[in-house]
Amino acid sequence: MSSPATLGVLAGERPMPTWARTQVLVNRPLTDRYRLLRFRSATIAARAEAGQFVMLSPATESGPVLPRPMAIYTRDAGSGSVDIVYGVVGSGTKALAALEPGATVVVTGPLGRGFVVHEETGHVLLIGRGVGICAMTTVAQDLAGTGVRVSAVLSGRHESAIIGAEVFRGCHGDVRLATDADETSGVAVLRERLHRGFDGDPPQQILTSGSARLTRMSGELAARWHATVQVSIEAHMACGLGYCHGCAAGDGDGTHEAPLVCRDGPVFRLRG
Ligand SMILES: Cc1cc2nc3c(=O)[nH]c(=O)nc-3n(C[C@H](O)[C@H](O)[C@H](O)COP(=O)(O)OP(=O)(O)OC[C@H]3O[C@@H](n4cnc5c(N)ncnc54)[C@H](O)[C@@H]3O)c2cc1C
Ligand code: FES
Fold first, then answer.
1. Which of 55, 135, 204, 264 has most Cβ atoms within 10 angstroms of its Cβ?
2. Shared domain check, 171 and 139
3. What are the pLDDT digits (tens) for 157-202?
4. Which of 93, 113, 136 to mutate to test the pocket of ligand 1 (most atoms within 8 A of CB)?
Protein backbone atom coordinates (compact mmCIF):
# COMPACT_ATOMS: atom_id res chain seq x y z
CA MET A 1 0.00 0.00 0.00
CA SER A 2 1.16 3.56 -0.66
CA SER A 3 1.86 5.80 2.33
CA PRO A 4 -1.13 8.03 3.17
CA ALA A 5 0.93 11.19 2.54
CA THR A 6 1.06 10.20 -1.13
CA LEU A 7 -2.68 9.64 -1.50
CA GLY A 8 -5.06 12.39 -2.59
CA VAL A 9 -8.85 12.03 -2.44
CA LEU A 10 -10.57 12.39 -5.82
CA ALA A 11 -13.45 14.86 -6.00
CA GLY A 12 -16.92 14.25 -7.40
CA GLU A 13 -20.41 13.00 -6.65
CA ARG A 14 -21.08 9.28 -6.33
CA PRO A 15 -24.22 7.29 -7.03
CA MET A 16 -26.33 6.48 -3.94
CA PRO A 17 -25.69 2.89 -2.80
CA THR A 18 -28.53 0.41 -2.33
CA TRP A 19 -28.90 -2.62 -0.04
CA ALA A 20 -30.71 -5.64 -1.43
CA ARG A 21 -31.10 -9.40 -1.18
CA THR A 22 -30.25 -10.54 -4.69
CA GLN A 23 -30.06 -13.77 -6.62
CA VAL A 24 -26.88 -15.56 -7.66
CA LEU A 25 -27.09 -16.28 -11.40
CA VAL A 26 -23.68 -17.91 -12.01
CA ASN A 27 -20.87 -19.05 -9.69
CA ARG A 28 -18.13 -21.01 -11.44
CA PRO A 29 -14.35 -21.32 -11.77
CA LEU A 30 -12.82 -18.75 -14.15
CA THR A 31 -9.18 -19.85 -13.88
CA ASP A 32 -7.38 -22.34 -11.64
CA ARG A 33 -7.21 -19.60 -8.92
CA TYR A 34 -10.26 -17.43 -9.40
CA ARG A 35 -14.04 -17.81 -9.62
CA LEU A 36 -16.69 -15.67 -11.31
CA LEU A 37 -19.92 -14.85 -9.49
CA ARG A 38 -22.77 -13.12 -11.35
CA PHE A 39 -25.69 -11.68 -9.42
CA ARG A 40 -28.84 -9.86 -10.41
CA SER A 41 -28.99 -6.14 -9.57
CA ALA A 42 -30.46 -3.80 -12.14
CA THR A 43 -29.68 -0.81 -9.91
CA ILE A 44 -25.99 -1.55 -9.41
CA ALA A 45 -25.56 -2.60 -13.05
CA ALA A 46 -27.00 0.74 -14.17
CA ARG A 47 -25.32 3.00 -11.59
CA ALA A 48 -21.88 1.59 -10.81
CA GLU A 49 -18.96 3.76 -11.85
CA ALA A 50 -15.66 2.28 -13.00
CA GLY A 51 -13.54 1.20 -10.03
CA GLN A 52 -16.36 1.06 -7.49
CA PHE A 53 -17.00 -2.00 -5.32
CA VAL A 54 -19.77 -3.87 -3.53
CA MET A 55 -20.04 -5.49 -0.09
CA LEU A 56 -21.30 -9.06 -0.51
CA SER A 57 -22.64 -11.35 2.17
CA PRO A 58 -23.89 -14.86 1.50
CA ALA A 59 -27.07 -15.79 3.37
CA THR A 60 -26.01 -19.21 4.75
CA GLU A 61 -27.99 -21.75 6.81
CA SER A 62 -25.65 -21.29 9.77
CA GLY A 63 -26.44 -17.56 9.93
CA PRO A 64 -25.15 -14.33 8.49
CA VAL A 65 -21.59 -13.98 7.20
CA LEU A 66 -19.83 -10.63 7.54
CA PRO A 67 -19.87 -8.82 4.21
CA ARG A 68 -16.71 -8.90 2.08
CA PRO A 69 -15.64 -6.13 -0.34
CA MET A 70 -15.33 -7.10 -4.01
CA ALA A 71 -14.55 -4.94 -7.02
CA ILE A 72 -17.17 -4.76 -9.75
CA TYR A 73 -15.51 -6.74 -12.55
CA THR A 74 -18.11 -6.05 -15.23
CA ARG A 75 -21.70 -4.87 -15.23
CA ASP A 76 -24.38 -5.09 -17.88
CA ALA A 77 -27.17 -2.53 -17.59
CA GLY A 78 -29.12 -4.35 -20.36
CA SER A 79 -29.52 -7.62 -18.45
CA GLY A 80 -29.26 -6.05 -14.98
CA SER A 81 -26.40 -8.33 -13.96
CA VAL A 82 -23.08 -7.70 -12.22
CA ASP A 83 -19.97 -9.92 -12.25
CA ILE A 84 -17.31 -10.16 -9.58
CA VAL A 85 -14.16 -12.30 -9.80
CA TYR A 86 -12.74 -13.60 -6.54
CA GLY A 87 -10.07 -15.80 -5.04
CA VAL A 88 -10.96 -18.16 -2.17
CA VAL A 89 -8.71 -17.15 0.73
CA GLY A 90 -10.72 -17.54 3.97
CA SER A 91 -14.14 -18.21 5.49
CA GLY A 92 -16.04 -15.41 3.70
CA THR A 93 -14.86 -16.29 0.21
CA LYS A 94 -15.30 -20.03 1.00
CA ALA A 95 -18.94 -19.26 1.81
CA LEU A 96 -19.24 -17.33 -1.47
CA ALA A 97 -17.77 -20.26 -3.41
CA ALA A 98 -20.40 -22.60 -1.94
CA LEU A 99 -23.34 -20.57 -3.30
CA GLU A 100 -25.36 -22.32 -6.02
CA PRO A 101 -27.19 -20.42 -8.77
CA GLY A 102 -30.53 -19.33 -7.31
CA ALA A 103 -29.06 -18.74 -3.84
CA THR A 104 -29.44 -15.41 -2.10
CA VAL A 105 -26.62 -12.96 -1.56
CA VAL A 106 -26.96 -9.67 0.28
CA VAL A 107 -25.31 -6.85 -1.67
CA THR A 108 -24.63 -3.22 -0.77
CA GLY A 109 -23.37 -0.96 -3.51
CA PRO A 110 -22.07 0.58 -5.59
CA LEU A 111 -19.55 1.89 -3.01
CA GLY A 112 -16.47 4.08 -2.88
CA ARG A 113 -14.81 6.49 -5.27
CA GLY A 114 -13.88 5.03 -8.64
CA PHE A 115 -11.39 6.00 -11.34
CA VAL A 116 -11.84 9.36 -13.04
CA VAL A 117 -10.77 9.62 -16.68
CA HIS A 118 -10.41 13.28 -17.56
CA GLU A 119 -12.08 14.77 -20.63
CA GLU A 120 -8.79 15.85 -22.19
CA THR A 121 -7.24 12.36 -21.84
CA GLY A 122 -6.64 10.61 -25.17
CA HIS A 123 -4.61 7.63 -23.95
CA VAL A 124 -4.96 5.69 -20.68
CA LEU A 125 -2.47 3.10 -19.48
CA LEU A 126 -3.82 0.53 -17.00
CA ILE A 127 -1.26 -1.44 -15.01
CA GLY A 128 -2.63 -4.23 -12.82
CA ARG A 129 -1.56 -7.38 -11.06
CA GLY A 130 -3.46 -10.42 -9.81
CA VAL A 131 -6.90 -9.85 -8.40
CA GLY A 132 -6.22 -6.08 -8.45
CA ILE A 133 -7.00 -6.18 -12.18
CA CYS A 134 -10.69 -6.66 -11.26
CA ALA A 135 -10.84 -3.01 -10.15
CA MET A 136 -9.92 -1.76 -13.64
CA THR A 137 -11.93 -3.81 -16.15
CA THR A 138 -14.91 -1.45 -15.85
CA VAL A 139 -12.67 1.43 -17.02
CA ALA A 140 -12.19 -0.41 -20.32
CA GLN A 141 -15.95 -1.09 -20.48
CA ASP A 142 -16.68 2.64 -20.12
CA LEU A 143 -14.04 3.76 -22.63
CA ALA A 144 -14.97 1.27 -25.38
CA GLY A 145 -16.10 3.20 -28.43
CA THR A 146 -15.21 6.64 -27.02
CA GLY A 147 -12.04 7.06 -29.08
CA VAL A 148 -9.81 7.07 -25.97
CA ARG A 149 -6.87 4.69 -26.48
CA VAL A 150 -6.72 2.03 -23.76
CA SER A 151 -3.47 0.13 -23.14
CA ALA A 152 -3.44 -2.56 -20.44
CA VAL A 153 -0.42 -4.20 -18.85
CA LEU A 154 -1.63 -7.25 -16.93
CA SER A 155 0.76 -8.97 -14.57
CA GLY A 156 0.50 -12.35 -12.85
CA ARG A 157 2.35 -15.50 -11.90
CA HIS A 158 1.74 -17.19 -15.23
CA GLU A 159 -0.37 -16.52 -18.31
CA SER A 160 -3.33 -18.71 -17.38
CA ALA A 161 -3.53 -17.01 -13.94
CA ILE A 162 -4.03 -13.56 -15.48
CA ILE A 163 -7.61 -12.37 -15.37
CA GLY A 164 -9.28 -9.67 -17.41
CA ALA A 165 -7.39 -9.98 -20.71
CA GLU A 166 -10.53 -11.02 -22.61
CA VAL A 167 -12.52 -8.09 -21.16
CA PHE A 168 -9.86 -5.54 -22.21
CA ARG A 169 -9.57 -7.12 -25.68
CA GLY A 170 -13.36 -7.20 -26.02
CA CYS A 171 -13.34 -3.45 -25.30
CA HIS A 172 -10.68 -2.85 -28.00
CA GLY A 173 -7.87 -2.42 -25.47
CA ASP A 174 -4.26 -3.13 -26.39
CA VAL A 175 -3.21 -5.88 -23.94
CA ARG A 176 0.35 -6.78 -22.88
CA LEU A 177 0.98 -9.61 -20.45
CA ALA A 178 3.83 -9.72 -17.94
CA THR A 179 4.43 -12.96 -16.04
CA ASP A 180 6.70 -14.23 -13.30
CA ALA A 181 6.99 -17.48 -15.29
CA ASP A 182 8.76 -15.82 -18.25
CA GLU A 183 10.45 -13.17 -16.05
CA THR A 184 8.73 -10.25 -17.78
CA SER A 185 6.95 -9.00 -14.63
CA GLY A 186 10.03 -7.70 -12.76
CA VAL A 187 10.00 -3.91 -12.45
CA ALA A 188 13.31 -3.33 -14.27
CA VAL A 189 12.30 -5.44 -17.30
CA LEU A 190 8.77 -4.06 -17.38
CA ARG A 191 9.86 -0.44 -17.02
CA GLU A 192 12.25 -0.83 -19.96
CA ARG A 193 9.53 -2.47 -22.05
CA LEU A 194 7.08 0.35 -21.27
CA HIS A 195 9.65 3.02 -22.15
CA ARG A 196 10.12 1.33 -25.53
CA GLY A 197 6.39 0.79 -26.04
CA PHE A 198 5.05 4.17 -24.99
CA ASP A 199 7.73 6.88 -25.14
CA GLY A 200 6.52 7.71 -28.68
CA ASP A 201 2.84 8.08 -27.67
CA PRO A 202 2.69 8.29 -23.88
CA PRO A 203 -0.53 8.11 -21.87
CA GLN A 204 -1.86 11.18 -20.07
CA GLN A 205 -3.19 9.00 -17.25
CA ILE A 206 -1.91 5.83 -15.58
CA LEU A 207 -4.38 3.78 -13.54
CA THR A 208 -3.00 1.00 -11.36
CA SER A 209 -4.10 -1.65 -8.89
CA GLY A 210 -2.85 -4.78 -7.17
CA SER A 211 0.83 -4.14 -6.46
CA ALA A 212 2.87 -1.65 -4.43
CA ARG A 213 5.87 -2.25 -6.74
CA LEU A 214 3.82 -1.41 -9.81
CA THR A 215 2.36 1.65 -8.08
CA ARG A 216 5.88 2.98 -7.45
CA MET A 217 6.82 2.20 -11.06
CA SER A 218 3.66 4.01 -12.25
CA GLY A 219 4.80 7.10 -10.34
CA GLU A 220 8.20 6.98 -12.07
CA LEU A 221 6.62 6.50 -15.50
CA ALA A 222 4.20 9.37 -14.85
CA ALA A 223 7.12 11.70 -14.04
CA ARG A 224 8.80 10.70 -17.33
CA TRP A 225 5.63 11.19 -19.38
CA HIS A 226 4.10 14.16 -17.49
CA ALA A 227 1.11 11.95 -16.72
CA THR A 228 -1.03 11.57 -13.58
CA VAL A 229 -1.60 8.37 -11.57
CA GLN A 230 -4.67 6.98 -9.82
CA VAL A 231 -4.33 3.87 -7.67
CA SER A 232 -6.96 1.49 -6.31
CA ILE A 233 -5.93 0.06 -2.94
CA GLU A 234 -7.27 -2.67 -0.66
CA ALA A 235 -7.82 -2.74 3.09
CA HIS A 236 -9.63 -5.00 5.54
CA MET A 237 -13.20 -3.73 5.75
CA ALA A 238 -16.02 -4.31 8.21
CA CYS A 239 -18.81 -1.90 7.20
CA GLY A 240 -17.67 -0.59 3.80
CA LEU A 241 -19.68 2.59 4.48
CA GLY A 242 -17.38 4.90 6.43
CA TYR A 243 -18.84 4.12 9.90
CA CYS A 244 -16.39 1.78 11.64
CA HIS A 245 -13.15 3.59 10.71
CA GLY A 246 -11.45 0.22 10.38
CA CYS A 247 -10.06 0.75 6.90
CA ALA A 248 -7.81 3.81 7.26
CA ALA A 249 -5.09 3.90 4.60
CA GLY A 250 -2.23 4.15 7.10
CA ASP A 251 -1.61 5.84 10.47
CA GLY A 252 -2.50 9.42 9.60
CA ASP A 253 -0.25 12.40 10.29
CA GLY A 254 -0.60 12.49 14.09
CA THR A 255 -3.42 15.07 13.92
CA HIS A 256 -5.68 13.82 11.16
CA GLU A 257 -6.84 10.30 10.44
CA ALA A 258 -5.60 8.81 7.16
CA PRO A 259 -8.26 8.62 4.43
CA LEU A 260 -10.72 5.73 4.73
CA VAL A 261 -10.36 3.27 1.86
CA CYS A 262 -14.10 2.49 1.69
CA ARG A 263 -15.35 6.10 1.83
CA ASP A 264 -12.50 8.19 0.38
CA GLY A 265 -11.18 5.45 -1.95
CA PRO A 266 -10.59 2.73 -2.94
CA VAL A 267 -9.24 4.84 -5.84
CA PHE A 268 -6.90 7.67 -4.86
CA ARG A 269 -4.82 10.19 -6.75
CA LEU A 270 -1.13 9.41 -6.31
CA ARG A 271 0.67 12.61 -5.38
CA GLY A 272 4.04 13.19 -7.08
C1 LIG B 1 -12.22 -2.41 -2.32
C2 LIG B 1 -11.81 -3.87 -2.35
C3 LIG B 1 -12.03 -4.60 -3.48
C4 LIG B 1 -11.68 -5.96 -3.51
N5 LIG B 1 -11.91 -6.65 -4.66
C6 LIG B 1 -11.62 -7.96 -4.70
C7 LIG B 1 -11.90 -8.70 -5.88
O8 LIG B 1 -12.41 -8.18 -6.87
N9 LIG B 1 -11.61 -10.02 -5.87
C10 LIG B 1 -11.04 -10.63 -4.76
O11 LIG B 1 -10.77 -11.83 -4.80
N12 LIG B 1 -10.75 -9.95 -3.65
C13 LIG B 1 -11.04 -8.63 -3.59
N14 LIG B 1 -10.80 -7.93 -2.44
C15 LIG B 1 -10.22 -8.66 -1.28
C16 LIG B 1 -11.34 -9.45 -0.59
O17 LIG B 1 -12.27 -8.56 -0.03
C18 LIG B 1 -10.74 -10.36 0.50
O19 LIG B 1 -9.97 -11.35 -0.12
C20 LIG B 1 -11.85 -11.02 1.27
O21 LIG B 1 -12.52 -10.06 2.07
C22 LIG B 1 -11.29 -12.10 2.15
O23 LIG B 1 -12.34 -12.62 2.96
P24 LIG B 1 -12.24 -14.07 3.58
O25 LIG B 1 -13.24 -14.15 4.67
O26 LIG B 1 -12.31 -15.11 2.52
O27 LIG B 1 -10.78 -14.14 4.14
P28 LIG B 1 -10.27 -13.71 5.58
O29 LIG B 1 -10.41 -14.88 6.48
O30 LIG B 1 -10.88 -12.41 5.99
O31 LIG B 1 -8.76 -13.48 5.21
C32 LIG B 1 -7.95 -14.52 4.62
C33 LIG B 1 -6.56 -13.97 4.41
O34 LIG B 1 -6.60 -12.88 3.46
C35 LIG B 1 -6.12 -11.69 4.06
N36 LIG B 1 -6.99 -10.59 3.60
C37 LIG B 1 -8.33 -10.50 3.71
N38 LIG B 1 -8.78 -9.34 3.17
C39 LIG B 1 -7.70 -8.70 2.71
C40 LIG B 1 -7.51 -7.44 2.07
N41 LIG B 1 -8.51 -6.61 1.77
N42 LIG B 1 -6.24 -7.10 1.76
C43 LIG B 1 -5.21 -7.89 2.04
N44 LIG B 1 -5.33 -9.10 2.64
C45 LIG B 1 -6.55 -9.48 2.99
C46 LIG B 1 -6.26 -11.92 5.57
O47 LIG B 1 -5.30 -11.16 6.31
C48 LIG B 1 -5.97 -13.39 5.69
O49 LIG B 1 -4.59 -13.66 5.67
C50 LIG B 1 -11.10 -6.58 -2.38
C51 LIG B 1 -10.88 -5.82 -1.23
C52 LIG B 1 -11.21 -4.49 -1.21
C53 LIG B 1 -10.97 -3.69 0.02
S1 FES C 1 -14.84 -0.38 6.40
FE2 FES C 1 -15.87 0.69 7.98
S3 FES C 1 -15.13 2.72 7.70
FE4 FES C 1 -14.29 1.66 6.03
1. 135
2. yes
3. 999 999 999 999 999 989 999 999 999 999 999 999 999 999 999 9
4. 93
Average pLDDT in the 238-251 region? Answer: 92
Ligand 1 pocket: which of 34, 68, 129 to mutate (most atoms <8 Å of CB)?
68
Task: Point out the ligand 1 atom lying closest to the alpha carbon of residue 68.
Answer: 21
**15: Cβ below 6 Å to ligand 2?**
no
* The length of the chain, given as a count of residues: 272
Among 234, 236, 237, 261, the mutation site with the greatest number of ligand 1 atoms within 8 A of its Cβ is 234
pLDDT tens string 118-136: 999 999 999 999 999 999 9
Are 205 and 227 within 8 A, CB to CB? Answer: yes
- Per DSSP, the residues of 146-200 read SS-EEEEEEEESSGGG--SHHHHHHTT-EEEEEETTTT--SHHHHHHHHHHHHTT
**Where in the sequence is the domain holding 75, given as residue range(s)?**
18-111
Q: Considering the domain boundaries, does residue 246 fall inside one?
A: no
Q: pLDDT at position 57, please?
A: 92
For residue 87, how far is its CA from the centre of ligand 1 (angstroms)? 8
Q: Hey, which residues does 54 pair with through a beta bridge? A: 70
Q: Which of 53, 81, 111 is the last residue of a domain?
A: 111
Q: How far is Cα 37 from Cα 53, in angstroms, rounded to an integer?
A: 14
Please identify, among 111, 139, 174, the residue that sits at the C-terminal boundary of a domain: 111
* Atom 28 of ligand 1, nearest CA residue: 90
Give the Å distance between the CA of 215 and the centre of ligand 1. Answer: 19
CATH number for the domain that contains residue 148: 3.40.50.80
Q: What is the pTM assigned to this prediction?
A: 0.94
SS3 content of the chain, % helix, strand, coil (to 5): 25, 35, 40
